[in-house]
Amino acid sequence: MDKPQELPSKLMVLISLVQGLCLLYLHQAIELHYWPHQQPQWLFALYSLAFIWPTMLLLGLTPYNTKAIVKFTLPFALLCGLLGYYTGYQATPIEHIRFDAVLLSFVLTMAIATFKALMYSQQCALGERVSYSALFLWSWRNFLTLCLALLFAGCFWLILLLWGALFKAIGINFFHNLFEQHWFYYPALALANGFGVIIFRSQTRVIDTITRLQQALMKFLLVVLVLVSLLFLTALPFTGLTPLWESGGSSLILCMQALMLFFVNAVYQDEPDNWPYSKWLHRFVYLGVAALPIYSAISFYGLSLRVEQYGWSLSRYWAFLIWFLLALFPLGYWWGIAKNRDHWVHQLSKVNVAIGLVVLGVMLLVNSPLVDFRKMTTADQLQRLADNTVAVDDFDIYYFRRHLARQGYEALQSLKEKYADTHPNLTVRINALYADHKQPSSTREEFMAGIEFLTQNPPEPLLTTLYKKESKNRWNLQKTQKNYLRAVDANQDGRLEYLWIQRRDDWTTITLFVEEDSNWRALHLQTLWNRKDNADAFYQTLEDGEVATQPSEWNDIVIGETRFEVWTQE
């Protein structure tokens, strides 16, 4: 495995070219609006195949394993395509749901799954027993080769840009225009990446030297990291956990665990009798490893508190998933320490190989209908609403719109029907979330149904003015939980003005509408901060009809063209 092999260069060049042409087709489909530009399920599936299988072949092919590597990687790539189809379907209907609600998590999890699947496939293709030392070597070779190849492709592209700019500077635009064409740079960059892979895969000794160098650096950093982790645990009994939760402690602890595990696995490979440290430093390191379950317990407690307070969300599901995976490794290591003491590294290889497969499986499952965090989050939040844990007016519909993709869209449409009579303004808010900005998001009747009229028979021209004014501000419609309209004679002239009061989650705006020459003009009165200004008492008083006017103690002062209002503070 360690001997450099002559790579099937022509086949790899062909694979790179086909990959570039596939990506070109998909880009042009989106740009020029032909199939499958309006079907994200097919876009996700085809992009998955176009990225994953060629990349696995480029990194895994040798003259001796072509059939074997295809046998292992093709089914995996097809499975990723199916998962891409399901994930893309969550971005439908495309006119209402953005790709970013599903894209980032899909790309990250598929990248991890592909990375894991590739190194297991490379090992299995050799017909050898899977061991951690071999997997470690494959992982670093694949990672560094791909990074350097992408760097090579980036440098190649910069040279092309310089080429085009130089000739454009002397009045020759041919090259500049050519290099900007999609049909040119997709195949060109794919080929450059393929050549980069060929170059760096033929330099395995250099790659392995870089790996040994980083391992030597991490050998010293691991000792410092263990010292930090043990000192932190020692300080916790004196400070308590409250300051930790106030500063995002659960995520910090997960980061500490992840770093510890990464460094431990980089330093200790499948050489259980060849310690990288002296006896006492070795014991100091495994003392830090043995303490990792304490970190798992602390982070579990912190995450559980958040779920108890606010229910499940996407970020909490992901946090618990990361917690679960990070907790598996130290539990396996702890078992080895308990059994073998100084020779606990004998257990490390078995644990890493087994849990590596668990990580691979989990990365695939979270993109399937079996473990769909968006579906699970939607169900939990709707149950909290049904249990009156969350009030309808306080329900975070924007979160459903922004993060839960199709699951959120379907849930909000069902909520519109369920609360159409009891909370009509919810319909206005949800309509504003999915408006196309070409026409009013809600009809005049829907908008009027969402107003709580605290006065009888307001003028129709005023209602028309309100509808036109508010329909232009989609953001305001989304955030406004309740609208109130109340008549008041603000200037004691016998003619009614109208208070337009809009309640949002954090603040309340109050506007006075005044009739001037048969038109209604808006005068902003004040903004109340709900938590600071006792909003509940304010709204109770408003609904009870306790609204009055009071003359101002001080007249306005006018100097030239400027008017000054006197503010009094008690």
Automatic annotation (TrEMBL):
Q: Which Pfam families match?
A: DUF4153 (PF13687)
Q: Which UniProt keywords apply?
A: Membrane, Transmembrane, Transmembrane helix
Q: Could you tell me which InterPro entries the record lists for this protein?
A: DUF4153
Q: Give TM regions.
A: 12-30, 42-61, 68-89, 101-121, 142-163, 183-200, 220-238, 250-268, 280-303, 315-336, 348-366
Top-level taxon of the source organism:
Bacteria
Q: Does the keyword Chaperone apply?
A: no
What is the designated name of this protein?
A: DUF4153 domain-containing protein
